[in-house]
Every structure is written in structure tokens, then in C-alpha cells.
């Protein structure tokens, strides 16, 4: 079975997105509730979903599809204002522990 168009390139870019997001998070440049972090995770997951289609790799497809949904949920929370803010964490430390 033949790979999809630009499958290799998309897979490499997706991997770069994940590594950049993870690196920025670990070096404390961004936080997990950052739209940049969630956006890079979402785009990276979509890229890997695409590469898992042909030849079909069910393990990668399912994991990355779920990853994309979780990242999309994070983006929706951020942009809808329903996430826990820093002020919420300072005023109510118990709320922070409930989200872990």
C-alpha cells in the first residue's frame, strides 16, 4: 500500500511540534494551559493521525486521535475562559489539586 502524499514530511513536522511543545513546557517558557502548547499538541497529533492512515497503523491512529481530541478540548477551555486562572489557583489552592 502506498503512503499518503507528503506523509513523511507531515510526520516529521508533527514530531517537531511535539518536541517543541514539550521542550518549551519543561524549560518553563510556556505552561500547559498556554494556547501555544495546546495548539502544538493538536497540530502534532493531527499530523501523526494523517501518517497513520496509509499504511494503516491502528495503535498510532487511536492514540493520536485521542491526543488531538484532548488538545482540542484544552484549546476550547482556554478560549472559552472556562479554565482555571492563576488567580483561582491563588485564591483556592484546593481547586488546583482537584485538577491534577
TrEMBL record:
<feature type="transmembrane region" description="Helical">
    <location>
        <begin position="6"/>
        <end position="24"/>
    </location>
</feature>
<keyword id="KW-0472">Membrane</keyword>
<dbReference type="Pfam" id="PF26604">
    <property type="entry name" value="CBU_0592"/>
</dbReference>
<keyword id="KW-0812">Transmembrane</keyword>
<dbReference type="InterPro" id="IPR058058">
    <property type="entry name" value="CBU_0592-like"/>
</dbReference>
<keyword id="KW-1133">Transmembrane helix</keyword>
<feature type="transmembrane region" description="Helical">
    <location>
        <begin position="36"/>
        <end position="53"/>
    </location>
</feature>
<feature type="transmembrane region" description="Helical">
    <location>
        <begin position="59"/>
        <end position="79"/>
    </location>
</feature>
<feature type="domain" description="CBU-0592-like">
    <location>
        <begin position="10"/>
        <end position="80"/>
    </location>
</feature>
<protein>
    <recommendedName>
        <fullName>CBU-0592-like domain-containing protein</fullName>
    </recommendedName>
</protein>
Amino acid at each position: 500500500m502506498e503512503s499518503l502524499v507528503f506523509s513523511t514530511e507531515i510526520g516529521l513536522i508533527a514530531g517537531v511540534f511535539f518536541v517543541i511543545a514539550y521542550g518549551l513546557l519543561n524549560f518553563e517558557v510556556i505552561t500547559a494551559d498556554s494556547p501555544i502548547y495546546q495548539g502544538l499538541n493538536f497540530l502534532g497529533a493531527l499530523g501523526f493521525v494523517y501518517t497513520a492512515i496509509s499504511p494503516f497503523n491502528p495503535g498510532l491512529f487511536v492514540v493520536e486521535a485521542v491526543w488531538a481530541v484532548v488538545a482540542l478540548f484544552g484549546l476550547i477551555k482556554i478560549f472559552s475562559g472556562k479554565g482555571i486562572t492563576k488567580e483561582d489557583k491563588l485564591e483556592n489552592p484546593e481547586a488546583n489539586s482537584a485538577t491534577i
